[in-house]
């Protein structure tokens, strides 16, 4: 398998892929057009954010089997089109989630305690104690928007600070023992500190604007370690001036270029940015929340592990002769009044190794490859099982979800919604003849290891 690297990464990424038998080429300077001319020679491409992988690029990549982004988001890739072409999309949010969580916590603690301001003043010969009296995180409500890998990591870091942690997410039943999921209205009513952990999409783009800010019942602090495009800077500055927003910790800015490597296309500084760089109640960092020595290694290793899992940990030859559909039970999901209490009971009395999602049971496939089955209680009011009216839903493991969904559609099976792709696999949903919703999962088990 030939793999092209168009962005620099930790050396273990190339080393790891070469150990799997890949031939790795590097081209960090060629234009997008020049890369397009030769991309048909490659089976894989490894990127960060140098340029968009759009339909034109994908059409020229006639032999491409995977696109690996060393980072959390896939916004620079036409995901739908690549999926239709059967290209595997690989990202690595597991690699820098801890770094982002620590950075977000560090920024808000620094802002609350005037650490940057006090440090600068002391270096100027000023010893101002009362002017730098801080405030404490304890007793406050931290609201998180976007409760995926990064949001969960930040919530975990907040344990021990005696704060209430709540979250809002477009997906149902993502809350856990570290964070209570609430409506957006409740989050805007209670929040003292708001932290953004959303990917780039139509919903998050320019999400934090004047109307959004005005809907908060109390003045609040803002942390953004997600994407700069989520916050309208002009509206943020107006809120800082009016003290609707009491302070801001910004690792990302809407002025960033797509590559994240430079801030501005030119030297003209917007007026709003000029305000931010002179404000004592604003902390800025250059998109480095997930940019640690450790995360650089983790991000690279996650990509290697996922490529290995998808392309090199293959079934035995005799197993390939039969076209399989369902290969095992991936999960048992059921409704309950109190998922947290029930998980604790199963942990205490039956020894379940429970986590945010329930309990993961590990076993071996015939090829000795690690595989998992998930046990997960959901709240009674979940809509995740809809349109089924049943109190349970089964998840089945499958080998090739794209092909299977196409076959099922041709066979007249009801398909529910669109296929979704995450770092731990592809998901699709169907209804059986009795109206039971069935979740089909093409797993990447290594994501849980």
From TrEMBL:
Keywords: NAD, Oxidoreductase
Cross-referenced CDD domains: 2-Hacid_dh_14, VOC
Alphabetized GO MF terms: NAD binding; oxidoreductase activity, acting on the CH-OH group of donors, NAD or NADP as acceptor
PANTHER family reported for this sequence: D-ISOMER SPECIFIC 2-HYDROXYACID DEHYDROGENASE FAMILY PROTEIN (AFU_ORTHOLOGUE AFUA_6G10090)
Statement: the UniProt record of this protein carries the keyword NAD: yes
Similarity comment: family membership: Belongs to the D-isomer specific 2-hydroxyacid dehydrogenase family.
InterPro entries: D-2-hydroxyacid_DH, D-isomer_2_OHA_DH_cat_dom, D-isomer_DH_NAD-bd, Glyas_Bleomycin-R_OHBP_Dase, NAD(P)-bd_dom_sf, VOC_core
Gene3D superfamilies xrefs: 2,3-Dihydroxybiphenyl 1,2-Dioxygenase, domain 1, NAD(P)-binding Rossmann-like Domain
Statement: the UniProt record of this protein carries the keyword NAD: yes
Pfam families associated with the record: 2-Hacid_dh, 2-Hacid_dh_C
Residue span, VOC domain: 328-443
Source organism superkingdom: Bacteria
Listed name of the protein: Phosphoglycerate dehydrogenase
């Amino acid at each position: 398998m030939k793999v092209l690297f168009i962005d620099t990464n930790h050396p273990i990424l190339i080393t790891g892929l070469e150990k799997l038998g890949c031939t790795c080429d590097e081209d960090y300077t060629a234009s997008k057009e020049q890369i397009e001319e030769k991309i048909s020679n490659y089976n894989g491409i490894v990127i960060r954010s140098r340029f968009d992988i759009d339909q034109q690029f994908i059409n020229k990549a006639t032999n491409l089997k995977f696109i690996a982004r060393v980072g959390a988001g896939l916004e620079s890739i036409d995901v739908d089109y690549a999926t239709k072409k059967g290209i595997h999309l690989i990202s690595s949010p597991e690699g820098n989630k801890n770094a982002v969580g620590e950075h977000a916590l560090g920024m808000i603690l620094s802002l609350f305690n005037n650490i940057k301001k006090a440090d600068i003043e002391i270096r100027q010969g000023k010893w101002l104690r009362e002017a730098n009296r801080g405030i404490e995180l304890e007793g406050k409500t931290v609201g998180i928007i976007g409760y995926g890998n990064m949001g969960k990591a930040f919530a975990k870091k907040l344990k021990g600070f005696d704060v209430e942690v709540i979250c809002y997410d477009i997906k149902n039943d993502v809350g856990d023992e570290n964070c209570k999921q609430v409506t957006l209205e409740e989050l805007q009513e209670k929040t003292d500190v708001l932290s953004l952990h959303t990917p780039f999409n139509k919903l998050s783009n320019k999400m934090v604007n004047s109307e959004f800010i005005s809907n908060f019942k109390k003045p609040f602090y803002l942390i953004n370690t997600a994407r700069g495009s989520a916050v309208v800077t002009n509206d943020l500055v107006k809120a800082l001036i009016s003290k609707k927003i009491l302070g801001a910790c910004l690792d990302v800015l809407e002025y960033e270029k797509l590559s994240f490597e430079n801030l501005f296309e030119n030297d003209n500084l917007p007026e709003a940015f000029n305000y931010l760089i002179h404000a004592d109640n604003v902390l800025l960092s250059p998109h480095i929340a997930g940019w640690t020595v450790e995360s650089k290694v983790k991000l690279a290793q996650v990509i290697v592990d996922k490529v290995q899992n998808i392309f090199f940990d293959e079934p035995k030859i005799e197993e390939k002769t039969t076209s399989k559909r369902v290969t095992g039970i991936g999960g048992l999901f059921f409704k309950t009044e109190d998922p947290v209490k029930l998980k604790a009971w199963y942990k205490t009395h039956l020894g379940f190794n429970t986590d945010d999602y329930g309990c993961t049971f590990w076993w071996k496939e015939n090829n000795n490859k690690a595989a998992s089955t998930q046990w997960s209680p959901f709240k009674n009011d979940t809509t995740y099982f809809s349109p089924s009216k049943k109190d349970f839903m089964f998840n089945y493991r499958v080998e090739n979800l794209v092909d299977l969904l196409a076959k099922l559609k041709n066979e007249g099976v009801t398909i529910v919604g669109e296929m979704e792709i995450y770092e731990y696999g592809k998901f699709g949903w169907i209804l059986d003849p009795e109206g039971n919703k069935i979740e089909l999962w093409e797993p990447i088990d290594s994501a849980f290891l």
